[in-house]
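User:
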Amino acid sequence: MIGVARRKLHMKLGYALPTIDLHADFSAVSRLPDRLDFSPRSEELGRRSRLSSEVSSAGERRSRVGPKQVLVDVAETRFIAWPDDWRARIQDTIT
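Assistant: Predicted structure:
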């Protein structure tokens, strides 16, 4: 969603993206061999953003999982603001 691989985020940029809250909603049962489609999106954008994934099959919503995550500067051990280009990509996915 932010366009940066986790490996680069952690190893090169020195950032972490911890989950500080997690919400899951299951609205329908999925069974084998259902084909599941995952659609990442954002529901909130601020210092803490809820980056969710909706799961559907044949157009029917099955579940939604929404971790609330923050961007952390590992060396400083503090929350930091989303860089403008990352914020723009997240903003494009807000539902």
